[in-house]
Amino acid sequence: MAPSSAPALARESPDTELLEPIRDVSHAVVQRMVPHIVAAGMVKATFWPLHYLDQGTTRHPGELARRLGVTPAACTSTVDQLVELGYVVRRPTEGDRRQVALAVTPKGHRALEQIWKGFDATLREVLVGIPSRDIEVTARTLRVIAARLKADGPDAPGEARP
User: Fold this and answer.
1) What is the CA radius of gyration of the chain?
2) CA 48 from centroid of its chain's CA atoms
3) Domains of the chain with bracketed CATH
4) pLDDT tens across 31-74, in order?
5) How far apart are CA 147 and CA 156, in angstroms?
6) Contact predicate 52/68, CB 8 Å
7) Nearest 10 degrees: CA dihedral of 61, 62, 66, 69?
8) b vs e for 77-109, b when ≥16 Cβ sit within 10 Å of the residue's Cβ?
9) What is the pTM of this model?
């Protein structure tokens, strides 16, 4: 097994104790999603853009590129793939027909539903045998972490925290 490129973690505090397991879970989640993404006729590179578009927080290619952390050219290529697969359509924006808005098609919604349904089944299998109290505490903690990590949330980098 190759050594990890992540820095070694000191076990000095409870928050430090969470860092490595969260990294491990994040990696495992992405790996476990791949078969479901492939079964839906997609690749990882097209899944996340479709997911963000489906969330309704991103409608324009420039917004999507920023959200994905890629160049507009790379985003255009991915959107082209999603359009070709029939998962997304481009439409003129109301009020400014020169601008383009992206919308998830019914086929795209079905693909996402299939992916999440398969992944949820995988997670349920993994959770078997873990005491419900542990799951409840973990769920509460992960909700707080997720809320703080969201780029558009009140705790986004560079914004003041109460």
Assistant:
1) 19
2) 5
3) 15-149 (1.10.10.10)
4) 999 999 999 888 888 999 999 999 987 788 888 999 889 999 98
5) 10
6) yes
7) 60
8) ebbebbeebebbeeeeeeeeeeeebbebbeebe
9) 0.74
